[in-house]
Amino acid sequence: MPFLDHVLQPPAYGWNDKKGKLIKPTINQILTEFFSRLNVIRDRRNWLPFFSWLKVLCLIPFFFIFLSSYLSWWTVLAAFIYSMIIMGTHGTIWHHRYCTHGAYKFRNSFWRFITQNLTINVIPEEIYVISHHVHHSKSDQPGDPYNAQAGFLYCFLADVNHQPIAKDLSVSDYHRVQLLMKHTGVSGNTYGQYKVWGSYVNPVSALITWVLNWSFWYLAFYLMGGHALACSLFGAAAFWAIGVRTFNYEGHAKGEDKQRVGTDYSENDKSINQLWPGFVAGEWHNNHHLYPKSARSGFKPHQIDLAWYYIKMMYKLGAVISFKDDKQRFYERYHKPYLEAKNRIHGKEI
C-alpha cells in the first residue's frame, strides 16, 4: 500500500465504502469521533490534537476580554490586521509553502526560527504538514483529510478527526514521516518515543515552544500597547485559529463545481481562486494546486501575494538562499494558450 494511503489515522467511519466511494459521515459520527480523539485519558497518544485545541481554548478568553474591556477603533483595526493579514499570511509562508512544500530554503536555522515564530504559535506543524501531502495526493477524493464534498463539519474538525498520523506505522514508514518533517526544525521523536506518544513531535518540546512563544509575544505586545493591545491581538489569534479551519471547505468550493474558465486552471480537483484569501494571505488556491511547490501563487497582476513578497524580501536580505517561482510556467502552459484560444474564437465571431 502506498505510503500516503495509510500515513494518516483513519476515522472510525472510514474514508471510503467497499465500492471506493467517499463515506459522508453523519454529524453525530463526526462529533463522536472528534471527542473520542480528544480523550487523552483513554489514550495518551491523542495528546497532539488535544494540545492543538487546548491552545485555541486558551486564546478564547483573550477574545472576550478584548470585547468587554478593550474595544475601540484602534484595537479593532489592530485585531483585524493581525488576524486577517498577518496570521493568515504567516500560515501561508510557514506552514504551507515552507513546511509542507519546501518552496524555498533558508540560509540557516536562525532565519527559519525567526520565520516560524513571527506570530503567536497556534497550529502544530506536524498536523498540517503530513496531512497536506495527503490532501494534494488525493484532492477531493476519498482519503483527502478535508474533503469538502463530505460537508463543512468534516473539514472544520479535520485536524482532530482526519489529520493526525497513524499510530501503527512501521519503522520505515515513520522514517518517511521524519524525512517530511526534518527541514522544519521541529524536534522529533525517535521511533520508540513515537510508539509511546503516537506523534512525530515530542510533547515536552511542543509545550516549551508554546510557552516561550506566547510569553514573548504577550510581553512584546504589552510593551507596544499595554494589556489592551496584547489582549486584542491574542483575541484576534483566537478568531483566526477558528476561522482558518473553514478555509479548505471554502477553497474547494464547498464540494461543488464552481471553477471559472480563464481563472481556475487546475481541473483535477475542485479548488478555486478566491479574492479575499488571495489578497490577505496569498492563498490563490487553484494556482497553488497547479504548482504546489512554487513560492509564489499570485501569478496574475491583480493577484496580490503577501507571502511571496515576504519570501522575496528575505531572499534580497540573504536570509533565503533559493526559491521556486512558477509564474512563467503558468503563463506559458495555461494562461497564454487560453488567451490565444479566446482571441481565435473572438476573431471568428467577428
Automatic annotation (TrEMBL):
Annotated compartments: Membrane
Species in which this protein is naturally found: Pedobacter hartonius
Biological-process GO terms, alphabetical: fatty acid biosynthetic process
Gene Ontology MF annotations: oxidoreductase activity, acting on paired donors, with oxidation of a pair of donors resulting in the reduction of molecular oxygen to two molecules of water
Protein name: Stearoyl-CoA desaturase (Delta-9 desaturase)
Domain Fatty acid desaturase: 72-298
Record's bilayer topology term: Multi-pass membrane protein
Similarity annotation: Belongs to the fatty acid desaturase type 2 family.
GO cellular component: membrane
Listed PANTHER family: ACYL-COA DESATURASE (PTHR11351), DESATURASE 1, ISOFORM A-RELATED (PTHR11351:SF31)
Membrane-spanning parts: 47-67, 73-94, 200-220, 226-244
Keywords: Fatty acid biosynthesis, Fatty acid metabolism, Iron, Lipid biosynthesis, Lipid metabolism, Membrane, Oxidoreductase, Transmembrane, Transmembrane helix
Pfam families: FA_desaturase
InterPro entries, per the entry: Acyl-CoA_DS, FA_desaturase_dom
Statement: the UniProt record of this protein carries the keyword Transmembrane: yes
